[in-house]
Structures are given as structure tokens and as C-alpha cells.
Batch of 3 targets.
Target 1
Amino acid sequence: MAATWNELQQWQPLAAQMLAHSLAKHRVAHAYLFEGARGTGKKDMALFLAQGLFCLRPTEGIPCKTCDQCQRITSGNHPDVHVVEPDGLSIKKDQIRALQEEFSKSGVESKRKTYIINFADKMTSQAANSLLKFLEEPHPSTTAILLTEQMQLMLPTILSRCQHIPFQSLSPVLFKERLIEQEVHPTMAALLSKLTNQQEEAIRLSTDEWFVQARKIMLKLYEVQKVHPFEAMTRLQSEYLPHFKEKEQIEQSLDLFLHIYKDLLYIQTDKLDHLSYPDQLEVFQKDALQTSTKQLSDQLTTILEAKRKLHQNMNTQLLMEQLMLKLQGGSALV
């Protein structure tokens, strides 16, 4: 389901306002580059722009979303709006050539034509050169919209012919709401909105049994290390090490740990809508009362230092044992 205008304004206020203004003033560029991380609304905004160009009943540049033109663009059935996606791992020259042939014809329902190239950074060099020729001689009624997560991988000559519109990562609060709309449990959405800004990854992790168990293990380790440091060492052996084996998994465990201590800070500063573990609020509130801001800051620094040591290939067991001791006020990470 395509995003509404209100959602686009929330997600990307600057991009939304810029494009709406261009549509209202009939000053649309011949080529745009939407650049930003996955899950930031680039494709939704591209469809919004396409609808604004074809809409039968726009209001100050904002498409109505209900006319025949808007609905067919939403469903992917408009004959003059073409979306190009990677064929396998890349966008091939033949795909761009087919697009050029299509655009050499007159529009089916008007003189205007629009094309959207998703993952434009995945064009082969031949495809990119073909597109460059297309951009160098733009038809006055053709609008190109290129979407990319990695602008640096694209030809500078293509970039120079596009109006660049950056897309910012969604705020965790907005992303959490978006995940809840996608039927991710609110408790899991709160945590995942801090760990990734990619919707597909967040939805996958929300039902991934390994991740669900990882969350439980790190919460239990936090509870145990507060009062029973020696039992924490035992749990490292019996639960932590068997579950977190790969470097990426270990780093994720440290992120899970980090957000526990960040929650304590959020509680101290009354930012409850920022919590990563809202289901632990009652327990964390007690802990926050018994912990100083200075101590929490030191503990967060200690976890970040552990992440740095991990990237220096420090032994995992030694790393975690030292982390438990340091969080208890024992020996430092060395």
C-alpha cells in the first residue's frame, strides 16, 4: 500500500515539501536522484511524484490518490509510468534499451512519460552508459527518477544530470510506528527501530527465533550481573557463548546490551517513548533510581569499548568476562 501524503511529510518533510512545490509551480526537473538508506520512503516518494505528474485532480501539487490515473500508478498498471528493478543482482543494458524503445513512442494517454529506476547503483557499466545517453538528450515531457542507497557507485556524469534529493533515516519513533502498522508487535518494534532502519530486515527479525532468544538472553544476563557477578560468568558459558557464535551476532548482542543501559538514561530523563524495552519498564525504573547518570555514562562507554575490542578480534569469552567485571566496577577492559 502506497504511503499517504501525511506519512511522506512525516518521514521526509524536506523532500516532500520540495517536490510538492515543484509540482504546484509546474517546475519539475527532467531527472531526479533520490538517495538514502533502505526503508526511508524513496520508492513511495517516487510514486507520489509520478502521481503528481498524471493526477486528474491535484490540490496545490498534491495528487488526489483516488482518480483513475493515481490508482493505476499505485497498482503498477499505468502505461506511461515504468518501473525498472534489478534483474537478479543487477540492472542490465537490455532493460535500459527496452526502456528507451518504450520512451521513443508517444505516451499512450498523454504526451508525458515517467520512469523509476530502483537500485540505480546496481546498473551494469553498459546499462549506466546507455542511461547516460538517455539523460543527455531528455525529452521535454519525460521525467526520470533514480533511487539509490549508494550514490558513490554511480557514474558522476549521471549524477551531474540529476537533481539530488537526500533522504534522511527515519527517526526511531517514526520507524517504530511504521513497523507497528506492518503488524510487528509493539514491544519488538520498539527495539528493532533502534537496531536497523531497514523495514524488511526489521520485519524478518521480529519473527526470527534466534533473535527473540537473543533478546531474552541479554535481558537475563543484565539481571544476573547486577547482583550475582559470578553467576553471570556461568551464564556466559552455558547460554551466551552457545548462542552468539559469529562476529556479527556478538556485535548484535552488545547492541542489545547497550540499549538496556540507554533505557535507564531515558527513564531518568522522562523520555519513555524512546524505550527499546518498554515491557521492562517497571524493573528498569527501580534500577534507574538506584543508578547515577555518571555511572550509566561509564557503563555505556564500557560497552562501546567492548564493541571496539571486538573489531580488533579480541577473544569473545575474554571480552565478555571483562565486560561483566567492568560493569560491576571491577577490572577494566585491557
Target 2
Amino acid sequence: MENQKHLFNLPDNIHYLNGAYMSPNLKAVEQAGIAGVMRKTDPTSIKETDFFQPAEEVKSLFGKLISAPSKQIALIPSASYGLMNAIRNVPIKKGQHAITVNEEFPSDHLTLRKFCQDNQAELIVIKPPETILGRTQEWTEKIINSINEETAVVVMSSIHWMEGLKFDLKAIGEKCRATNTFFIVDGTQSVGALPMDVEAFKIDALICASYKWLLGPYSSGLAYYSEKFNDGEPIEYSWMTRKDSHDFSKLTTYPEEFGANAMRYNVGEFSNFIALPMIKSALEQILDWKPENIQNYCFELLQPLRKYLEDKGIEKDDDKLVSAHLYGLFLPEKVNLNNLLDDLKTNNIHLSARGSSIRISPHVYNNAKDINALIKVLDQHF
């Protein structure tokens, strides 16, 4: 795969290695958003079918991306919204517990903590090993070994949002299925840049905000809910999630019955005439590129950085077990993080600090100049 910076409007004088913070707009996504804004200038251009058909198109595209039927996908305004829709429908018996991982993304942890408080259940947090080499595999094994028949639900990100470690979702999903444990995954940190297959990984609910690796707008997202959730209780009671809601002549019959499958979990006013065209454009481009090609591009892009770290004797886990689009780098003790961040800013290098590490998150708009600029600054501090 070749560099795709020409499809973005990123300034030439910056090195943007911060896609895990927020993606830049594709030019096509930007234009789709502008066109969406302009549509409301003349509301007669918005037909009744536009409240539903574009949403179905977006769900179909997302389904292709994660290997799921579109009927099991819902449109959500945020990851926390999608997570709460899922967690409130997880059955739990007295004495059962819930599992998450150490330093999980706040929305995931807080949602699960509330679930445990409401159900007087223990929240078990699986900590990583102290070592860096072998960290991913050992952490995954600790998660799997902690899951048993008393585990009501496991909630975790598809990769660790700070370190980029690629947990073995397939193995975790298989253990959850064998113990009748619900497996809820926050895919915000990887879906769109790393292959995802909800069927193969036996995921019961997959929640994704769109503003990172789906290259979409903020305050929008998509969620997959397996058939286990088809009779569940949604957060809200919008008219748009009811059976035959597309027939505007029947609105005041106030139907009780929800639409089929995951339709009940759609956010109210899901037919966002600005956001949906942007998400659609982004998904079409991602499907054209293919997530595996994006991942391979980023992996090759980071090769000089990995070689540099190896030459410096900086310990890291197996390269194949760490994502290439979100690469967490533990800093040597002698490095002053604040001084490093100041130096990076001076050199127009944009990335994130998380804890005592830095998070390097490239995409197909990055090139060798970006990585070389980063290495040059790191070399002044390492």
C-alpha cells in the first residue's frame, strides 16, 4: 500500500502521529459533511426515506467491516452510550462477578463499575505482568484463566488503549462462550485500522466511536449487538426505533413493539444528515483500503523506529503482538517526559502521552519523514 496523504488536508509542516487521539478528515469526508450542512438550507430536499435509508447503508458498510449482519448493528452517539445499552442487558446471578483489565479506558471501566454496584457484584481488574517482554501473551493468559462460570461479563478494549497490546480476542471469546460469559468489546481503539471479526472472536457486543480509526465525526458511532440482545431493554424510547416507524402516517398509534434485531438500540434522531454521510464516506474508503493493508502499511512505517529502539537496548514486547497503528513506548527512566513533550511540540510532532509512556499512532497519511523526525527527537533524550 502506498502513502495516502493526498486524500487528506493535513498541513505539510506537521508530523501527525496522533490518530488514536482523533483522526483528521479525509477530503471526501469533509465534503460529505459540508454537503450535509447545506441540505438543511432547503429542507424540501430531505425526504421521509432519508430518515432511514442512509442509516441502513452505513450499517451495511460497518457490517462488512466487522463481519456482522447489518440487522444487528445500531447507530450510537458515543461509546459510553453503546456500552450502557449492552451492559444493562447482561443477566447476572447472585455471587457472580465482572472482569476488566488494568487501566482500561475510563468509559469502559466506569460503565462496568456501575453495573457491579447496581448488582452488588465484585469487579475484578486483571493487572499486567511486571515485565515488558512477553507482556501481551501473559496478560491474555491471566484474563483467560480468570474467566469461569461465575463470570457474568468481560468488558475490555480490542487492544489496550495506552500500550497498543493486541489481546488474543479469539481465545478470550472462546473462554467466554464456554463459560456462558458475555463478552463486550470496545473497538474504538482499533476497528478500521486492524481486522475485526465478531463471529470468529465470539463477541457479544462491539462498540465503536467513529472519530478515531473509523475516520468519522465526533459524537457518532456504531455498535454490534448479537442476537442475545434482540429482546433487551434499550436506554431510550424513540419513535424511530419502533416497528413500522418509517410510515409517518402511523406515528400517533404509539406502537409498543420495537423494530427487529438491534433496531431498538439506535439513538434517537439517528438519521443525522451531517454525520451519516461523513461516516459512509469514511467506511467506503476504509473498505477500499482494507484494514489489514492499513496495519501492514503502519507496521512497515514503524520499522526504523523498532530498529532504533533495538539498537538502544530498549525492551519491548514481540512486534507482532503490538499494534502498528497504536504503538505504546515505555520510556527509559532517565527520560524526562515533560522535556521530551516540549521538544516534540517544538518540532511539530504530535502524539500522546499516557501514564509514563508515549503513544505513537500513525496512519496511511504518514510517511518516513514523520518517523525520522520522531527518531531524531527521541535520540536527544534517550
Target 3
Amino acid sequence: MKLRYIKYFLVITVFAYACKKSEHIQEKVETFLGFQKPKNFPETAYNFANNPVTKEGFELGRMLFYEPRLSRDNTITCGSCHIQSSAFTQHGHDVSHGIEDRLGTRNSPPIMNLAWNKAFMWGGGIYDLDLFPISPITTHEEMDESLENVLNKLRSLDKYKSKFKAAFGSEEISTGKFLKALSQFMLMCVSSNSKYDKVMRKEGNASFTTTELEGYELFKQKCSSCHAEPLFTDNGFRNNGLVPSSINDLGLYTATLLATDKYKFKVPSLRNLKYTGPFMHDGRFLTLDAVFTHYAHEVQATENLDPLLNKNGIRGISINSDEKTKLMAFLNTLNDEEFINNKLLAEQ
């Protein structure tokens, strides 16, 4: 009887310890760590001193990102055009679709690694992440709303008063706090756990296959001047020789009015291409095959064509079928499934 009691006591003790340990692990997993710069990434461009990411600020930003009241008819959220499963793009649409199914003129860019960006939008014009949301909210083809109307809608809801107080110490719902909360959410949209990243950080046994490695070497020779590692963009604006669209989108020129900026668009990151098609500023290419065809055979001598695509009178980039296969293998190592499945970034 005594032996049975001892066994029973030991089982209860072990079970209690296991439960306590499990709770500790769960608590650790759920601990909000804030913004963490990946080891293989450079220093950020965003000034975190003016807007440090907090748990409360991030959670408020996430609510706002998925809040339909940001649009005039209360139907469109930021997440409508920036869908997490598509690496925060509007997959399948060549250009963005706003309220009343209005069509924009450009493809929805991904919300990804924005902490390293100094300029935003395909055609530039915005140079501060905290000001970025003003454009989609007020644009006729997108949300078609005014900031004041948005703030008044939020002020009428007690849940937002308490969220703003938790995040910023006051129930006041102001433009500055509203925009900073949205920035806190977007800053946390970091894609840095692709196979490429794990190889670069020497995590576990991560390594490239022979084909991926050969593709990597080709990438460094043919693509890295514009799509610089590890963000796979130089964050600049370039004319890549596309035939001007029917609306004759002039790109960066619209923001600067400098003739030398005509037809220059922001260099997109090559991360998560598996999820972010269609491609180019107007979504004209449905597949990566079409993108390769453009660079190999279809680059046009448009005004301000980037010199890297016009060397010695030869336009484009020489890429044969074997090289394309190897480059595709490498580009696939830039897909980050952890990012598109991160529950922290999903609508709650």
C-alpha cells in the first residue's frame, strides 16, 4: 500500500512538473519579442527611435490593417489588396481592386521587409513608412476615404479607444498615432526564413542543391546588380525596357517631374515569387517564364533604359534554357512559407 502511494505521488509530481514546463514553454512562445533584425540582414532604414514596436502598438496596427472602416463604404481593408497567403499581395489581379471593384493602375506591391525601404510605391513619391497608408486610404480607385472620416469612425468605437490607450497611453485617436500603429504592424512583416536565409546563416544542415548553387552563381552574374542580396532589391528605381502601357504610366517621373525619371519603377524584391504573381508594376506578366522571356528577348529601347540592360548596343540579358532552369531553382529558395503562415500577422 505504501509503495503504491509513493508511485502515485511520483506520477502526480511528474505530471505537475510536465504541465508547468509546458505552460512555461507556451508562455515563452507567446512572448512578444518586438522587431528583431535577422542576422543576415543589413541595418534598417526606418527610425525605430521615433516609433518603437510594442506588443500593444503592433496589435492595434494589426486591427487597423484588417479594419474595413478605413474605406469609404466600409468594405475594403489593407488586407484586401495585401493578402498574407500571397506574401501580402493581391494574387491573381494584374492591378489592384478597390471599393466598388474599381480598378487601379498598378499591381499591389508586397508588404514585406519595409523596415529596409527608403521609398515606397512603384512610382515613388512617398519616403516615410508612417505616411505610406495615406495614399491607399485617400486614392479614388482604392479606399476613397479621408483620414478625418476614418478617425471619426474609430473614435465612435470603445474598443479602439482602449486599444489606443494601451498602445500610446491615451484614448486620443490622432492621425499620428493611427499611422504609427499601422507602421508597427507593417514593420513586423519580415520575410527572412527562406531556404536561402537558412543557408546563409548556416542553420542546421541547410545547403543548396547542385542546381540551386549553380543558379546562385548565375544570379550573382546576371541579376544581382539590381536585385542585391539579402533583400533582393537595391530599393532603387530603374527602367527595365517594358513597352509603355496603354495609359502611358511614366513611373517615378510622376513624383519628381524629372525627364531622366520617365519610365523608371521601383525594383521589386525577388523574395516569395511563388506567391506574388503576376509580375511587373502593372502585373502584365502572369508567369516567371514570361519575365525571363522579356529580359532575354523583349527589352525595348525606351527613354531612360537602364544601362545595365543596354551593354555594347545589345539589349537585355543573355539567358539560355539551361540557365533559366538553374536560376529558377535558386529563386525558389527565396520562398518563405513561415512568413505567409505566420499566425501573428493574420487577422485575429
